[in-house]
Specification:
six-stranded parallel β-sheet, globular, Rossmann fold, 270 residues, homodimer, magnesium (chains A, B), four-stranded parallel β-sheet, alpha/beta, 9 helices
Chain lengths: 270, 270
């Protein structure tokens, strides 16, 4: 295998996934993954540019950052690229007024968005909010539009909580796509536009950046499609079969964020 | 356009969809569509063979027939081809023990099926039963199986109730297909096997049969793929855009079942 020095050559910027890399979500707010608090601190003390790039859409950035800070992480809102604010920008640019099928925890991100007389639907990981009644309402709104627009915050298949695997927004996005005969616009990973906006925030080119995530498709495959390199951590939703994925091969597999940061600091911070 | 006499030549058997053709479901059991009670009676008095072919899977056949009889229809259980009994036959033949994600109204059809230690999932139009919790449970059962089998009673996108369009089982089938990376086996229209079982029951060949339905894909497209002819009624879930559907063209469009039966009796019952 190619030596790490070669695989990491020229990396100036690092995008970090949050859930499954920094911490595992779950009851009581979740728990930091061993070594990740220190790893983030060391990374931020290095010459590498760092940006957090998450598909979290059950919480507002404020809530997410508050939770992470309580777990000991050095992180602020301005360092986080997340789907809800990106979606709000799109909604404003295009004069779209959404019907929101989202989790209550993220609703505050849409506070200054006009939601009267909706001309599109925004779907996010609503968790228990994915009731038949709520799904049917979103469906009816789309069916009444001449040009139905469906915006999905991510398209994950599932994620892992302490209690087991949980259906993610992608499944419900597919349900609405099929019922309405539309194709959703995905805001969040693996959308190239989303990765690019995270890179713009730290002024790093894709070929000089590396993504670190636990999702072989959304993080690793998405970043590579965008011209970045990507490492997969063996934490969060990682499954051993990911290392033999038929379509996506990471630029490296590491046990956790701490190992990734060791390698980055050893081979890039010269 | 080809004259009706030509389009209907050689028809010996008629398959009738129920919801949206005979009646509109909804609060209080629903309401017969104007002229349909008499149309069914006239059809059954003719020389044409008649079979009801429905994807109804919120109710047992007994319940459905009881409701239709109260609305005035001449119909008995033995005349109805429906997905739940067809699925039970498949489950028994293949030794499958289902986890059931179905409506309580149809549960009695599965009374003699072993549902312990499930090795497959059966999904049907569960209506309000499509909660996040129930969907997640079905998802988790599939993810734990080495060879996940998902059987879906129909794959309709939506149906119409008095209160508006309602999401059908197909949307939720797609959600599970995407989340689990499986392809569902569909029992019900538009599965050719399902149409064929309805035709076998009245001993009519596909080229001598015509389907009458309100669903351009499930009824019309499905029947035509099976070698039958098909009329679409402008009742139930019919939408004007169906008459310009990019893929499916019915052998005729009629205002309602009464008009379809007028034409059939005029041009075939000689």
């Amino acid at each position: 295998m190619t030596p790490w020095a070669e695989r990491l050559a020229g990396v100036h910027g690092v995008l970090l996934d949050i859930s499954g890399v920094l911490y595992d979500s779950g009851a009581g707010g979740g728990a930091a993954i061993a070594g990740s608090v220190e790893a983030v601190a060391r990374l931020k003390q290095s010459r590498l540019k760092v940006r957090f790039c998450t598909n979290e859409s059950q919480k507002s950035r404020g809530e997410l950052v508050g939770l992470l800070r309580r777990l000991g992480f050095d992180i602020s809102e301005g360092e986080v690229t997340a789907p809800a604010p990106a979606a709000c920008q799109i909604l404003k640019e295009r004069g779209l007024r959404p019907h929101l099928l989202i989790h209550d925890g993220v609703r505050s991100e849409f506070n200054d968005i006009d939601i009267s007389n909706p001309n599109c639907v925004v779907i996010a990981d609503a968790g228990e909010g994915f009731s038949y009644q709520n799904m049917n309402k979103a469906f009816q709104v789309l069916m009444e539009l001449e040009n139905p627009v469906l915006i999905s915050l991510g398209k994950g298949r599932y994620y892992k909580e302490a209690s087991g695997l949980m259906l993610d927004v992608g499944a419900y996005m597919k349900a609405l796509e099929y019922a309405c005969g539309v194709e959703a616009e995905v805001v969040g990973k693996p959308s190239p536009e989303f990765f690019k906006s995270a890179l713009r925030a730290i002024r790093v080119e894709a070929h000089q950046a590396i993504m670190i995530g636990d999702d072989i498709m959304g993080d690793v495959g998405g970043a590579q499609q965008c011209g970045m390199r990507a490492l997969q951590v063996r934490t969060g939703k990682f499954r051993p079969s990911d290392e033999h994925h038929p379509e996506v091969k990471a630029d490296g597999y590491v046990d956790n964020l701490a190992e990734a940061v060791d390698l980055l600091l050893q081979h890039t911070d010269k």
